[in-house]
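Sequence in, structure out.
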Amino acid sequence: MNQLSFDNVYVYRMCVMECAMEDETGCARERPFMSSSRKCFADQVIRNPCNALARGYMTNSDLEKAIKAFHGRCGHISRTYSIGRSVLGVPLWVMEISNNPGKEEAKPAFKYIGNVHGDEPVGRELLILLANWLCDNYKKDPLATLIVDNVHLHILPSMNPDGYSMRSRGNANNIDLNRDFPDQFFPMNNDVDERQPETKAIMSWIKKTHFTASASLHGGALVANYPWDGTQDKSKNYYACPDDEAFRYMAKLYSGSHFNMSRSNEFDSGITNGAYWYPIYGGMQDWNYIFGGCFELTLEISDNKWPPANELQMIWNYNKRSMLDLVASVVKSGVHGRIVSSDCGEPLPASIVIKDINYTIKASERLADYHRLLAPGQQYEVTAMMPGYKTRSTTIIMRDKPVTLDFVLEPDITQADSFLPSRCNNRGNLNILEAISNPHLQISLTLVLILAFLCFLMKRKAIVNHFKVRKTIGQRRVSAV
C-alpha cells in the first residue's frame, strides 16, 4: 500500500474521529475531546487520502470473490446465498456456517452484519477473517468446533455495498440504513414502498430465518451498545428494554473478551445503553428485538472508522475472541428446549414467557425448538403456553451453564375452540404426503403397482381358463347323458 504523508493521515484521522458518530441530522456526533466543533468535512477535504487508504481494503468485487473462494474451500461446512440486492443491484451475499448448512435443525441461529454504513468498512474485513478462521480451525479448536456443530451462523459482510463504493455513510439514495426500520415510538418508516431495498432484504431475511441473536459491526467508537436505542420523549436517558439484564450480560461478554474495550475511559465496562449514549430512531437493533424475536447488539469495533489497511490484522486480533464468544453464548448460556403435545407427540410452536420479563419468544413452527437468552446467576419461572393446551410452568436457576427444558403440553378439553385433533390429524396427513413425495418411495410404489397389475392379469387369465375348462367338462357331461 502506498504510504501517505503524515499530514494527510493526521487530517484524515482527525476528520473521521469528528465525523465518527452521525446523528439523525446527518452531521457528526463528535468525540468528547472534539466537542467544540461539529464539522462534516471529510468528503470535501480529504477525498484523495480516503481513496488512498481504501487501497488495502477489498472492493465489492473482491469481497464477492472472497465469499465464493471461502465456500469453494469450505463447502463441507458452508453455503452461500443472497438475500437481495442493493439500490445499484449489488447482491447482498451471506455465508452460512454449520455442520449441516441449509438444513433446518433444532439449533439456535446467529447472524453478523457488517458495513451497515458505507464509510465503516472494518466489519466486512473482519467477517471474512472470522469465516475463514472457523473453517481453518474446525475440528482443531474447541470453540470453533462448538460453534460449527451447534449453531447456524449467518454472515452478511456488507449490507451497504453502494455506500462503500461511494465512501458515504448512506446508501446510493443517500439514506442512512440504520434509520430506515420501523420504530416503536414514532410512526416512521411504516410505508413499505419508501423503504430502501437493503432494509427490505434484511426484514424479509429475519422473517424467514428464526434468529436467536445477532450483532452489527460499526466503526467510530469502541463500545458494545444494547437496547433501547431511543426514548419516548427523545431525551438522552438510560431506557431499559425488558431484557436489560440479558443484554448487559451479552455486551459485557463481548467487551470483556476484547483486548481493550472493557478498559474504556468513556464507557463503563466498555458497554452502553443506546438511548443513554445518544438516542436514534428507526434503528435495526431495536427492530430485531421487537419484531424479529432476536437479541441484537450494535458493536463499535474501531475508534477510527476507516483505519489504514495495515491495522486490520491488529483489529481482528483484538476482536476475534469477542466475536467467537458472542456467537457461542447462544448455546453456552440461556434456556433451550422443545415443546410437544402429550397425545400425539407432535411439535407445538408455543410461546415461552419468563415471569416479570415482558417479552415473549416463540418456538419454531416446524421443530418447536426454542432458545431463550437469560442472564446467569438468577432464578426464573419459565412458562410454555399455546391456545388449545394447558399452560405449564417450571422454575430454573441459571448458573454458568445452559439449561435444557422441554415441555409436554396437554390438550385443554375445556376450550371449545381447541384445534388439537385437527392439528394432529393434519400433521399425520402431512407426514403421509411427505413420505409419498419421496422420489425413492414413488419408484418403489410404481413397481409394486405394476407387479400387482401383472399378477391380477395372470390370475384373471387363470380364472378364465378354469371356467372354460369347467364349461367344456360340463358340456361333455351333458352330452354323455
